[in-house]
Design brief:
mainly beta; four-stranded antiparallel beta sheet; 1 helix; globular; seven-stranded mixed beta sheet
Length: 128
């Protein structure tokens, strides 16, 4: 059974850092692009970052460029999202998604969040 399990969320003060991990299982890791979306209260869900199957293509939302770094570890079938200089606007539930379509995990085409695989989400709260 294909699964994505997010971890690493929590509460942090502005300017702090968190590292999210998406552990994958049950599907061929190298065949899927992986992405992170977030949902803040009262706001639309947005694509945060994604990485292609090979790791050669990476995309970031303008709001996180220069602060977040995505990476994938093929030996452990995991994807990490290093989040630095966190701001209150980064607060939300972060979801890991996987799909064969890079354009979909990048948020450039809509699947109505019906990705091939989707995690349950992890809470990130940035507050002083």
């Amino acid at each position: 059974q294909a699964r994505l399990v997010e971890s690493g969320g929590g509460s942090v003060q502005p300017g702090g850092s968190l590292r999210l991990t998406c552990a994958t299982s049950g599907f061929p890791f190298s065949s899927y692009a992986i992405g992170w979306f977030r949902q803040a209260p009262g706001k639309e869900r947005e694509a945060v970052s994604c990485i292609s199957r090979s790791g050669m293509s990476i995309n970031y939302a303008d709001s996180v460029k220069g602060r977040f770094i995505i990476s994938r570890d093929s030996a452990k079938n995991t994807v990490h999202l290093q989040m630095n200089r966190l701001q209150p606007g980064d607060t939300g539930i972060y979801y890991c998604v996987a799909d064969e379509s890079y354009e979909a995990v990048a948020g450039r085409i809509s699947l109505d969040f019906n990705f091939a695989v989707r995690g349950q989400g992890v809470q990130v709260t940035v507050s002083s």
